[in-house]
Amino acid sequence: MWWTGWRSSRGGSILIGSSRLQPRGVTRSAAGQCRSEGGGRSRASPQSAGRRAAALLPLAAALAAALLLALAFGSVAVPIGTTAEIVASRVLGIPTSGVWTSAQETIVLQVRLPRVVLAAVTGASLAMAGAVYQGLFRNPMGDPYLLGVAPGAGLGATIVIVFALVAAVGSAWLLPAAALVGGLAATAVIYLIARVDRRTPVGVLLLAGVALGSLLSATTSLLMLARPERLHYAVMWLFGSFSSAGWTQVALVVPFVVVGAAIVLSLARQLNLMLLDEEQAAFLGANTERLKLLLVVGATLLAAAPVSVAGLIGFVGLIGPHAARLLWSSDSRSLLPASALLGASFLVMADLFARAAFAPSELPVGIVSALCGGPFFLLLLRRRKRSIFGV
Amino acid sequence: MLRLRRAQVTAVEYASPAQPTADSRPRLAWSRRRAELTADDVVAGYGGRMVLHGVSLVLTGGRFVGLVGPNGSGKSTLLRALAGTLPLRKGSVALDGVDLRRISRRDIARRLAVVPQSPALPDTFTALEIVLMGRSPHLGLLESEGDQDLAIAWDALDRTEASHLAHRPVAELSGGERQRVVLARGIAQRPAVMLLDEPTAHLDLHHQAEAMRVVRALCDEGLASLAVFHDLNLAAQFCDELHLIADGAIVASGEPSDVLTDANVRAVYGEGLAVAPHPRNSRPVVLVSRAELE
Predict the structure, then answer these.
(1) How many CB pairs under 8 A join A and B?
(2) What's the pTM?
(3) Quick one: which of B72, B73, B70 has its CA closest to B55?
(4) What CATH fold (topology level) applies to the domain A144-312?
(5) Predicted confidence (pLDDT) per residue in B235-255, tens digit
(6) Distance (Å, rounded) from C-alpha A363 to C-alpha A313?
(7) According to CATH, where is 1.10.3470.10 located in chain A?
């Protein structure tokens, strides 16, 4: 196993994930066998919700650091100390003695904060949706766009863009609304197609997702070719960007994300049962049909809402959960929050790079996340020298 | 995260200074109410093809019942029907008189455990984590396993001689070790009824006998247990009662010596078999006989 050697190289004392169940005073040899060091308790208390949350503190600290960096840097740099003081006094309400210009405050709070928050929310929800689909389909290739969210949202947005409907209707909300409806509708259609005899086998669901996804993507490409003069706008949307982020976008996304996150987090222990197989999950008390539907609804809300305002941002939903699994735990109750924190930190940093690297021009964040995340993840894989899912 | 605590039933504290072994640890009392599982004229199958053609049986607390029959005779299908995961075409399965279709999966799993044969297990989970999944039906939506659940999981691992495997990821375990972990998961459910699909597959002779003794001991404490067997002799040694099934119907039921007769065995499994009494306890032993094959 990929992690056995790693943990044992630290004397088995790092209490993460499943190893927290290890009795104190017992070390794990390279072969994974337990031996007593004498005098220790033989039975550890289980990992409670509190201990799981405490183990996530380093990731929360990393996210806080990423948020601060992203607020301080950009085309104009604001000193980190000043940034922290602005946030402390204006957002958190802690009185500080710092002095700053009104221009600095405007940059940090009005220009950067909504964008950074949107990047964090997007990274967190895409990574959680990916973790749900990887578990539900027992497939390491699972990502948030598996069940039609990306092609559905892409088609919805492309229709609005190529026919210039925003100008025709006169509302800027049309683009995110069309993308959101497209993404949700595509998943709903896939779920209904895959439903046979009051059951929805995950294999059929997966194939229906691939098939309808291809159909929608092809339609999107056709529309783009039909109106080549609008091609640039459509492609830029598909690449994904936070350049139009404001508090209204955040307000549009957050309700969907909160509902989706509440659904999947409360079902985390039952998602563990689905990692076995459906029949075993039923033997262990899960109502598998209802569970699948709720998990798909939750993951779809998590994936479709950010896509509707930020476009298609790939990679973070695939890699976030894998990195969390490699570094943390396979138990969904730890995996989901760890994926969310990692995904949020990662996308906040990717967006910082996207807007700061070649300022004042911007790169699409979807491209940056793949360019930066790909090598990082390959490195992680090489260092573990084992596959992610088992041997 | 919200944490809901349940009342501690019997707190078992394993805080002894010396490392206790599986033998020195106190064994948790089983203390489960007895239950009765009844199948009435069950007709079921896959798609349009019916595998079971009207099977009726009663499984009561304290009894260890064996299900024997040739390949494809419907043993595993009957197990699924009894567990409530296979839709029935006709007939019913009831737990303490209540039709399984009217009980939620969670309430079924609190009283009825299924030990499947070589099931898929997620590689990165440890044996203890797999066994703790057996506590899932007893936990609330946002609840985590408490000390009591952990004590029950360790007790289950002790009973199946698998406590030394607790912290190993299941990908590292052999087929037989995995089988013992899955049996421990079923025990950790603390069921009143346990259905086992070839619990001795992949096990060496020592662990075959050991697994049978574990289930036998639980039955003596009140568990109602039904197990599918390929090994007729193991079934004859440990079961109170056998059902011989052929072509989706029960053809003989009763004590092992009444079911495993020369005539029954030849009728179901074909010629070339002989039944003799076991030298130690005179329960029936089925032997392949070369002379009659030629």
Answers:
(1) 140
(2) 0.85
(3) B73
(4) ABC transporter involved in vitamin B12 uptake, BtuC (1.10.3470)
(5) 999 999 999 999 999 999 999
(6) 12
(7) 144-312
